[in-house]
Amino acid sequence: MAVIPTEYEHEPIRGLPGDLPPGESILWQGSPDRRVFARSALHARWIGVYFALIAAMALIGGSLGGMLAAIASAAAVIGLLVLFAAMVARTTVYTITNRRVVLRIGVALNKCVNLPLATIGSAQLRDQGGGFGDIVLVPCVAHGLGYAMLWPHARPLRLSRPQPMLRAIPQAERVADLLAQACAAVTPVMRSDVPVMEPLTVPVREIAA
Questions:
Q1: DSSP sequence for 109-138
Q2: Cα separation of 51 and 128, whole Å?
């Protein structure tokens, strides 16, 4: 049986653009849950409620055609959102090491975002129920990461200083504790060595070459 090559076959380690340097080790890896991602990041439920209200109003107004059009539109829009969520879950890998957080993201254009632990000022956990959650990473230094480049792995409405997010991850509380411990292990000396974060996003394929 022929093996169909994938765009990630070149990765020496899943989710990472290169081999780990000496002294660095992976503490955790994970990906978004597609159902939780569709609900929390793409607001699929609220969009469904919106179309349900339109359909109900059309029915009350005696417009059967309007109700059917609203139902068809809801099916199309929610279907696209669910498909996009599945693609995000398939292509995204979050990695926490003892030195950095790496986000391999991008559905159409793949890229890796490297965030040294020394540049993370704080992290915030958002519970999404069922053990799932989002972890917001708040950089403590200036960086060159754009909101559009990070989306949908960025905190909403933080356009001027985007904050990366690990979205819809399982066992989020345990991962948050692990990240907190890893950041606490970074000494103040290491933090003082990073006055400004250089642009940390590079295409995966370019690194592989």
A1: S-EEEEEEGGGEEEEEEEEEETTEEEEEEE
A2: 23
For residue 116, which of 38, 198, 50 has the smallest C-alpha distance?
198
Single out the residue of 101, 75, 105, 103 nearest to residue 90, CA to CA: 105
pLDDT in tens, 75-95: 999 999 999 999 999 999 999
Give CA 158 to chain center in angstroms. Answer: 15
- For residue 77 the two structure tokens come to 């829009």
What are the distances in angstroms from CA 148 to CA 10, 16, 131, 132? 26, 21, 28, 24
CA angle at 60 for the pair 55 and 66, rounded to the nearest 5°? 40
**Beta-strand pair 201-203/111-116:** antiparallel
* The total number of residues written for the chain in this structure: 209
The pLDDT value given to residue 187: 55
CATH topology for 27-32+92-208 is PH-domain like (2.30.29)
Cα–Cα distance for residue pair 169/30, rounded to 1 Å: 7
The number of angstroms, rounded, from the C-alpha of 183 to the middle of its chain's C-alpha atoms is 20
> What is the domain partition of the chain in residue ranges?
27-32+92-208, 38-88
Query: Residue 91's pLDDT is what?
Result: 94
Q: What is the CA radius of gyration of the chain?
A: 20
Please classify residue 85 by burial: count the beta carbons closer than 10 Å to its beta carbon, then call 0-12 exposed, 13-18 middle and 19+ buried.
Answer: buried
